[in-house]
Amino acid sequence: xxxxxxxxxxxxxxxxxxxxxxxxxxxxxxxxxxxxxxxxxxxxxxxxxxxxxxxxxxxxxxxxxxxxxxxxxxxxxxxxxxxxxxxxxxxxxxxxxxxxxxxxxxxxxxxxxxxxxxxxxxxxx
Length: 125
Prior knowledge:
This protein is 39% helix and 31% strand.
């Protein structure tokens, strides 16, 4: 079964018409995230186009990952839409790698627990 069918990827555009090729590009790039972390429940990507006469055209890509634990959010800006998507996926990938590293360190170095109650001694017969 293809992993694209297992995970939900939502692509939306704000002040931007989403072409089928752009949606396909986002989904292909997002596959990298699903290969690295299989527990992602949903990925939502919002693409926004800001046409400002002073700054020119700016594209903003926002990503929201719903995963077991706290959700992850990231946003990037670029002058091209495809570049913004690539930068966003790179940033989310780094965030997932950092999260995985922190969980691995926590798993391999458990903390000692102090108990206030006295532990009863076993009776020898």
